[in-house]
Specification:
Layout lengths: L5 E11 L4 H13 L4 E11 L9 E4 L11 H19 L3 E5 L4 H9 L5 E4 L3 H8 L1 H13 L2 E4 L2 H10 L8 E3 L23 E5 L9 H9 L5 E5 L5 H10 L6 E5 L3 H7 L5 E4 L9 H8 L4 E4 L2 H7 L4 E3 L4 H13 L1 H15 L4 H19 L1
Parallel strand pairs: 1-2, 1-4, 2-3, 4-5, 5-6, 6-7, 8-9, 8-11, 9-10, 11-12, 12-13
Amino acid sequence: MTTKPLTILTGINRGSGPSSGSLILANDLYRATAASGVRTIYLGRTPVDPSWKAAFDDLIPLSTMKRPQGPGFDDYVDELTREVGALVQQLQPDVIHAQNVGFALSVALSRTAGDIPIISLAHGTEVMAAERSPAEHAALREVATASTVIVSPTTVVATRIDRLTEHQLTNRLAIIPWGIRLADAKVRERPSTKTGPLSLVYAGRLDDNKSPVTAIEALSLAGEPHHLTVIGRGPLRQDLERRAAELGVRDRVRFEGYLPRTEVWKRLPRHDAFVFTTAGTEGFGLVLIEAQAHGLPVVYSDLPGVSGVLGRTGMAYSPGKPRSLALALDALGRDPCRRNALARASVRNAHRYDIEYTARQLHKLTLRVTTTRH
């Protein structure tokens, strides 16, 4: 007698490739789950990266034309709901993992799930959107209310969801930290001995919330001529280049553009420290763990969610304050012993966030909600 595998329906309403932290997390997470007797069906969009298919048993591209919030958005969600509803009816999954609580795909899944249990997974961006927009707030509440469990990567994100849902769903909130594929990370072996300017690296989106301009402005205020490599893309690229030129540090800033994660991981150990500059809100900050796993000291903006993930294993500065960052960088440049101590602490902390652990915890939760259903 053969046992029918547990079937999970999930997806992210974007091109199916490693273009953001949420997409990379999903790929890693379900690749780690693959050995647990689970069939995972993923709803995404074209283009589909060839490597993406390896993490999922089936990958179904959505055909409904995507439209942003604004005029016509409700019609788009209705059309997407019809497409997703037909797929749910056809596939009959045992459980739905709704990524990004409140975004269009999770709304469509919640409206068509029927008695299929939903575990919604908060990534942080949707929480920020719900705090800014009444429409996004209403969508988050709708999905959260339809969910059996709402998974958050940190207590900070969970608290914000609890507030947005007026403390009516507190008992549905669960904390499962995100993780990375630690086995693929290579720690640099050489200890740091030099004093003076540092080779710094930033990796992330180039937008106002991530605030890479803080790092560029800090270079102009620092006492040492630190160098910065910026890896990533986003709407502020030209503004950042212009700002670096205005401040006279353009020759000390290297813009790399978008790089695949494998290439980013190769380059991380070449630098003396990682700078994390988010000034507004951050769901988790996986890139911090990536940097730490490679043995880099991390200088980070002291946001509640970030400090909870790092504890005392990084060097904090005041969010959005270039002078505070400049002082931290100079202090780190003068003290190789502290850099080495932070590097060792970084590796220890990173090993708290293995994607294998995340996958096991989510699998246990999935079994619990499906067992209760049956």
